[in-house]
EF-hand domain-containing protein
Amino acid sequence: MPSFSGNELTNEQIDELRDAFERYDLDANGTLSAKDVRLALISVGYEITEAELYDLIHSVAVSDEQELDLQKFMRMMAPRMAHVDSDQTLCRTFSIIDRDRDGYVSVQDVRAIMVVLGEVVTDDDIKDICRAVDMDGDGRISLRDFISFMHSPI
């Protein structure tokens, strides 16, 4: 499997990136403009701000180059593909924990998953877990809270 700056891409990821690149290379000149790069990124599940976009482009572009060829696009995306995949896994995990499918993990959901995992926890332990994962402090655990917590340093 090709490696881009130390990040291995699977054949599936290479195909996905190539498809995204070709889909947004509307004039078929073999390069993507910054706007097209952003659309391609969104199509593979990577939402970014405009500032982040230009930082990404400059991480692989030569001097003030504003367009990327396929090779540079893949080199730019290689470290991010693992992030996208892990977020997809976290979304699936969240949906399993969110038993009533209301978009939030409740105290009861946390208690149920702890039972399934065979963990013996007190009500205070569960409240502490919920407080720790509730990253925005609104009293409930959303998908965004869950992903932020899982990516936060321990």
Remarks:
- Strands lie at 3-4, 7-8, 31-32, 68-69, 104-105, 141-142.
- The helical segments are 11-24, 34-43, 50-60, 70-97, 107-116, 123-133, 143-151.
